[in-house]
């Protein structure tokens, strides 16, 4: 009886699809309906949040319709699908993107205008779920957008953190963190599914025995259980399917234990409930350094277990055999954060579904694929054997079993003791710990890096032994970005100009931007290109003043570095150059300096002292520069607090120059680099991550390259890098560094920046001093080109025209072809 199509249900009640219609009248009617009957508001008493919520609910209905239709189609076609497991997502505001995807921006604007309301004000009202730290989480959300657009049967699983990434405020120049209460005014986009919930076990011990049929069995007797409940958010594709991001919230298995009858136990039961809910309370705010926190391991296991149980339910619900699981699901591990899934799937198959080890291992290894996102040693996750054994005793046994079989295989192949120790899932040096990247690699059928360079380094360095053993397992998928969000929604001026010239094809096929090439030298087109940029810069100027009180001139060159604050990203290299400019201006040597506003934004991990000191340095230099009449006509410095997706959408469209200046070999890919270039910013950058491919695409003559290559960096290190030598021998470096501790910054405090000063002089682990001259020289070239606006604009147009490769649609297509072997199933409307 449930085999009827959705259309026929609508027909049977005489409603037709128009109940979620997309005309101006439909939207207006639905919006008022939501306002009155969902929120219970009369017009005179509505708050901005009510208006936003009513609009969001109106659009959510329409998104859900797409999603329901997609599910219907996926099910009918019994399609193979993808589950994307990610501990982080950064979806950004949903409303604008959904309006674009439904193609109803104009209709909605008009519907609201007829009610004397303004769409932009409503859009501005929306906050965002900060359920990630940076690149990795935002990538996951770009992928959701593209999965939906391409019609890939898919689902994104994650964690519904009650508090996302902290809110950053700047107080007396320092970063201060406050909690992000993103659910405070409600979240109209999600739907709670109380009926979709699973029990997840923790702690306790295992019991091994042989059953009546001589089968070896293991019971896990946990010491606590927690329930995970699904919260679904529909993610729309562009004029296409809808998919679901399913996030798990932790709850006590029983909120109140009714067997207790005395007050003391009642309170204990309440405490237990609170403890359980702690698991999904807060996101760990470190992007590159995971410090072995117990709660973090619990979070990872919790969401992985819920997700796998859910997939098994979805798979078997339709009468399919569990042994065919891998034929229906490819599971992508977004970094090692969900890699405990390898052991969990084994446990579910072997212990709970009684599949023999060898067969279960075959299924597991044909199910998972693993994306590595970093080469930084401090970011490669490890869990001590003692912690893992205490929280997940059965999983530790399974990991040991996987390892002993794997090492046996290596021994059979004649591997040496050294090699075996290097490849083992257990690191025996110091306190024994489980290497999660090794578990993910052994348990997956494919492993990929996120840019050509990164994938190459992954194979030649971090996972070198594994790449030798299984060369076919390793591949690359260069990251991409949701260009619809980051150009069409964020930069409507540019999007309209592009569409006017080449049509709308670029929205679904970014490569067609190449048709813009022929206009690169067209003077009229160049002028309009500049007009759009100026408009965006003027809008950002207002925002900057509102946020920081600093007035900047939109005619200046906007030179921007926005990303997490990290030594390897070298925000401080940009600052050293600004100090050099300041000193030059003070010396009266202002020739060749193009008037510039240097804009920074980004969060530092709360426990990362040097990163926080770098923020303090930026704000100190900003105060010095902005308050000095002699200087501030030529340069200004801004630190925009609380960088997030919404702010990013204002910043990228207004940038002239994009700073991608990490030490080569450290940034796996970067995705901000792509968003800037797509918005017409030129890049100054090193040969790191995806910069390499961006430069290949846009052409060397349209990219400001500087600094050492990965190989040169290694060579410098091998030769014994002595940063002090650069200080001694390079007058400019000496002057800039001495300035840091001169007391001229930060009200005469000579000690404040000493830790940075010493760090650079004594270790300089990211070789700023070695790359400094080359960076400064490139900046001179930037100024020169900027002074020739026609030349600059031509380069800017060519940059955009040649960025076709960097859509996340292309990345997802690569995943489908190279890894998942999944085909699109598009809904027919
Ligand atoms: O992932 C990153 C980012 N920090 O989240 N890595 N991690 N982990 C890399 O550092 C970026 O280079 C990369 O673009 C991003 C997404 O792959």
Task: Summarize the SSE layout with pairings.
Blueprint: H1 6-12, H2 24-38, H3 48-76, E1 81-85, H4 95-102, H5 105-113, H6 119-125, H7 135-150, E2 154-159, E3 167-171, E4 174-178, E5 191-202, E6 205-210, E7 216-221, E8 224-236, E9 242-252, H8 263-277, H9 294-317, H10 325-328, E10 329-334, H11 341-352, H12 357-367, E11 368-371, E12 382-384, H13 385-391, H14 393-412, H15 417-423, E13 426-427, E14 433-435, H16 436-442, E15 444-449, H17 452-462, H18 464-469, E16 474-476, H19 483-489, H20 492-502, H21 523-548, E17 557-562, H22 571-586, E18 596-601, H23 609-626, H24 629-632, E19 635-640, H25 645-651, E20 657-660, H26 672-678, E21 682-685, H27 691-698, E22 704-705, H28 710-718, H29 723-729, H30 731-740, H31 754-763, H32 768-787, H33 789-801, H34 808-820
Parallel strand pairs: 1-2, 1-10, 2-9, 10-11, 11-15, 15-16, 17-18, 17-20, 18-19, 20-21, 21-22
Antiparallel strand pairs: 3-4, 5-8, 6-7, 8-9, 12-14, 13-14
Bound molecules: C-(1-azido-alpha-D-glucopyranosyl) formamide.
């Amino acid at each position: 009886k449930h085999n009827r199509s959705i259309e026929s249900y609508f027909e049977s009640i005489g409603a037709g699809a128009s109940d979620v219609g997309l005309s101006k009248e439909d939207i207006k009617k639905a919006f008022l309906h939501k306002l009155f009957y969902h929120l219970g508001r009369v017009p005179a008493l509505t708050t901005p949040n009510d208006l936003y919520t009513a609009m969001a609910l109106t659009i959510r209905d329409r998104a859900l319709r797409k999603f329901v239709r997609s599910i219907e189609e996926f099910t009918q076609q019994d399609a193979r699908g993808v589950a994307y497991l990610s501990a982080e997502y950064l979806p950004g505001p949903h409303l604008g993107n959904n309006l674009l995807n439904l193609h109803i921006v104009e209709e909605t604007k008009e519907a609201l205008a007829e009610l004397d309301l303004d769409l932009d004000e409503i859009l501005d009202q929306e906050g965002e779920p900060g359920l990630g730290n940076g690149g990795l989480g935002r990538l996951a959300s770009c992928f959701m957008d593209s999965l939906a657009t391409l019609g890939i049967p898919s689902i994104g699983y994650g964690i519904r953190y009650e508090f996302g990434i902290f809110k950053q405020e700047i107080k007396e120049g320092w970063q201060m963190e406050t909690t992000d209460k993103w659910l405070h005014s409600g979240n109209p986009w999600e739907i709670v599914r109380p009926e979709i919930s699973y029990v997840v076990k923790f702690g306790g011990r295992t019991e091994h025995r042989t059953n009546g049929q001589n089968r070896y069995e293991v019971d896990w007797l946990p010491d606590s259980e927690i329930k995970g409940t699904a919260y679904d958010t529909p993610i729309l594709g562009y004029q296409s399917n809808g998919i679901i991001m399913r996030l798990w919230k932790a709850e006590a298995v029983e909120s109140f234990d009714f067997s207790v009858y005395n007050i003391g136990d009642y309170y204990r039961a309440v405490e237990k409930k609170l403890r359980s809910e702690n698991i999904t309370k807060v996101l760990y705010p470190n992007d590159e350094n995971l410090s072995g926190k117990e709660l973090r391991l619990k979070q990872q296991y919790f969401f992985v277990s819920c997700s796998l149980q859910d997939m098994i339910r979805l798979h078997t619900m339709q009468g399919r055999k569990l042994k065919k699981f891998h034929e229906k699901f490819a599971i992508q591990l977004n970094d090692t954060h969900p890699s405990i899934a390898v052991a969990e799937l084994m446990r579910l198959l072997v212990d709970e579904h009684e599949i023999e080890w060898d067969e279960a291992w075959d299924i597991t290894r044909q199910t998972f694929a693993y994306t590595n996102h970093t080469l930084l040693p401090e970011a490669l996750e490890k869990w001590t054997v003692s912690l893992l054994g205490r929280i997940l005793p059965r999983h530790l046994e399974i990991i040991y079993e996987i390892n002993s079989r794997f090492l046996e295989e290596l021994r059979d192949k004649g591997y040496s003791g050294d090699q075996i120790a290097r490849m083992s899932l257990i690191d025996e040096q110091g306190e024994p710990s489980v290497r999660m990247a090794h578990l993910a690699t052994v348990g997956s059928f494919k492993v990929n890096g996120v840019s050509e360079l990164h994938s190459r380094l992954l194979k030649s360095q971090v996972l070198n032994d594994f790449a030798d053993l299984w060369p076919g397992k390793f591949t690359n998928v260069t990251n991409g970005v949701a260009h619809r969000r980051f150009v069409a929604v964020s930069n409507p001026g540019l999007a309209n100009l592009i569409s006017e010239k080449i049509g709308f094809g670029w929205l679904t096929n970014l490569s067609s931007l190449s048709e813009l090439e022929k206009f690169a030298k067209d003077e009229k087109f160049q002028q309009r290109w500049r007009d759009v940029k100026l408009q965006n810069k003027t809008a950002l100027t207002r925002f900057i003043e509102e946020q920081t009180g600093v007035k900047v001139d939109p005619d200046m060159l906007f030179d921007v570095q926005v990303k997490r604050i990290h030594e390897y990203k070298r925000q401080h290299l940009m600052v050293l150059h600004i100090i050099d400019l300041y000193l030059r201006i003070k010396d009266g040597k202002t020739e060749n300096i193009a008037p510039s506003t240097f804009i920074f934004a980004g969060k530092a991990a709360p426990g990362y002292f040097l990163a926080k000191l770098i923020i303090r340095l930026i704000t100190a230099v900003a105060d010095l520069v902005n308050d000095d009449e002699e200087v501030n006509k030529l340069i200004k410095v801004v630190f925009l607090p609380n960088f997030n997706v919404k702010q990013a959408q204002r910043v990228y469209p207004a940038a002239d120059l994009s700073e991608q200046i990490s030490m080569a070999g450290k940034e796996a890919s970067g995705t901000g680099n792509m968003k800037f270039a797509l918005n017409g910013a030129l890049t100054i950058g090193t040969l790191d991550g995806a910069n390499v491919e961006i430069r290949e695409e846009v052409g060397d003559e349209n990219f400001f390259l500087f600094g050492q290559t990965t190989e040169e960096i290694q060579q410098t290190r091998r030769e014994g890098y002595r940063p002090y030598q650069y200080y001694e021998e390079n007058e400019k470096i000496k002057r800039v560094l001495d300035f840091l501790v001169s007391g001229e910054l930060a009200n005469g405090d000579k000690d404040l920046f000493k830790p940075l000063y010493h760090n650079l002089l004594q270790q300089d682990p990211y070789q700023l001093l070695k790359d400094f001259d080359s960076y400064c020289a490139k900046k001179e070239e930037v100024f020169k080109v900027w002074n020739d606006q026609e030349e600059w604009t031509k380069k800017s147009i060519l940059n955009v025209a040649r960025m076709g490769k960097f859509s996340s649609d292309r990345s997802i297509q690569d995943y489908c072809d190279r890894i998942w072997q999944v085909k699109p199933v598009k809904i027919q409307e």
